[in-house]
Amino acid sequence: xxxxxxxxxxxxxxxxxxxxxxxxxxxxxNKKDKPYTFFDTHSGSGVYDLLDNxxxxxxxxQKGIVSLLxxxxxxxxxxxxxxxxxxxxxxxxxxxSPLFELGLMRKTxxxxxxxxxxxxxxxxxxxxxxxxxxASPLVQLHNRDGWxxxxxxxxxxxxxxxxxxxxxxxxxxxxxxxxxxxxLINKKWTNGIIMLWYPLLAHREEIINQMIQNITESAKExxxxxxxENLTLCVASKDSHxxxxxxxxxxxxxxxxxxxGSGMLxxxxxxxxxxxTQGFIDFVQSRII
Length: 289
Known about the structure:
The protein has 289 residues and is α/β, with parallel strands linked by helices. Helix content is 46%, strand content 17%. The radius of gyration is 18 Å and the shape is globular.
């Protein structure tokens, strides 16, 4: 399905976790002079207007990134994330994953983006053209299914690199597609850093846990000593949301959303990812919950 629009959710708690981990991984790859390839399977439009009616309707950015930036009291350990976001927030914008990648990667690197939605890919092309500079990496844009793209194009010629898989999870197939796709590409690209964002949903708990378990077991079959981190940011309890009828929802609009948090599963995790991200998670939870 192609009904999901990230503009409603840009800058929310899930983006905080996802983009912090993404920034950390990109900075880790940049520590070596050798070029690398980065894949983004579900790229979206690349940048989001926080004054857009869709963003204002949900208020998720206000509760997320906006509240943190207004406080302006983060640790220097998180500056690499907040400094980048601030460069867009001054214009009431929030950068999507492709802009983090475009802005943090080097001109010797290669960025491969995939987006299936016909409207989103058009905006993404315009966004990449607008923000690219002489220092930007080589960018390849694909209007194709992200699962198919990553299976077809890995391993990259550079050998070094990473992939961000960030499906909408509109369909339960996304959970099984993530599991099968990651298992496949990890077997043929054993040193690639693989990042999977996933939602925390009480009504999907079983399928989510099974997906994580299957991916972890498959990775350990390839390399028993592989570094795997499962990082989660919760902004509510698992049982905070209850299923109600439409009539009840209209009467009581305070019912918490289904998404009570999110996670990032990282295979071949770089050094100090867990410690640094946990510090960021603690910082966020202490301020937006």
